[in-house]
Amino acid sequence: MSSRFQLQGEMIPRTVKRMFDQRGEQRLDAGTHSVALSLRGRNHLVQLINLSRSGAMVRFAGDAHIGETVSLQLLDRGTIAGQVRWLRDGRMGVSFVRPLD
To answer: What pLDDT, in 10s, does the model give residues 45-94?
Structure first.
């Protein structure tokens, strides 16, 4: 099956747990907030795990692929477009198209 998404160098499936935190910005723990994730034209209610200016981690057990376009509906920020960056153990990393204000 052909895809219009391209795998970039920084979007690599993780098979080994991080040994140290390489992220350059603060993550805010989201507690138990639920958000709507739009993927392939379908909406899914997912748990937001953490949030930063450039992305988010959500709990998502569905079928997704690295590089796919998604959007998150955040109550206080509206709909945010992004791309799947990584998938592991029922979690998904989303990189936002533009940083949050």
So the answer is: 999 999 999 999 999 989 999 999 999 998 888 999 999 999 999 999 99
Q: Which CB contacts under 8 angstroms, 24+ apart, belong to 33-37?
A: 33/75, 35/72, 35/73, 35/74, 35/75, 36/72, 36/73, 37/70, 37/71, 37/72, 37/73
Distance CA 16, CA 71 (A): 27
43: domain range?
Answer: 28-96
Q: Could you give the CA distance from residue 68 to residue 99 in angstroms, rounded to a whole number?
A: 18
Residue 18 lies in a domain: no
Number of domains in the chain: 1
The model carries a pTM of 0.74
At 65-77, the pLDDT tens digits run 999 999 999 888 8
Q: Which helix (H) or strand (E) holds 86?
A: strand 78-88
